[in-house]
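Internal tracking record. Fields below are filled automatically when a chain is submitted to the structure queue. Please do not edit lines marked as system-generated. If the sequence contains nonstandard residues, flag them in the REMARKS field before resubmitting.
Queue: standard
Priority: normal
Entity type: single polypeptide chain
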Amino acid sequence: MSEKQIHLPTPDGDLDAWVFQPDGEGTWPAVILHTDIRGVRPVFIEKGRQLAAQGYVVLLPNLYYRTDRAPVVDAALVPGTDAAKARYAALRASLSPDGLQRDHAALLGWLGAHPRVAGEAVGIVGYCLSGAIALHAAADYPARIAAVAAFHGGNLANTAAGSPHRRAGAIRARLHFGHAQDDASMPEADIARLGAALDAAGVAHTATRYAAGHGFAVADNPAHQADAAARHWQELLGLFETTLKVAA
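SYSTEM-GENERATED OUTPUT FOLLOWS
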């Protein structure tokens, strides 16, 4: 497996990203790996490596590039403190629907031109806030994005005008959700609203309820749970195996 850091031009500046791919002269399906709110850091670098080892070209972007190069959060920052809340608010503020749409156009364009990427179909996996980002991307680029997974994703189907579930009719990807237990960012009412919207739009989707807290799938999160994380990984690989590898 090989890896390198790149700087990908976008209309808003150079986006720093990491690329992982299997060794050899073959071609492989492409996956965009999005982080939780804390951005690119060793735990997501390792996820990129593990996905590439399964036979994918993996692109791990720093979506906060308008604010800072990765890493964007000091490893010593304590979650729940005023300093952490202020930093996370600043990072969220750097993300806009229009900006993210431009970012995904650049990411998909780069993957489409990569000589080791097989086919046009791309998968996305998101964690925490990037679950919603992944769903919006699937609605923005339905001809390219064939599979989306969101684990402990938040705000996927709330009452806000910009909630991603409202765009279900534009999505053509196969979706999988791993919902956390007692997750304030994705309560039972929102889970039901999401399922109803996807069913009404005829979007293929599955979901798993995990007896684990928000953040269970990320190893450096205090809520990380090894058994749930292992299960999420198998579900993710299963989704990509039956969509991206078939399409390639």
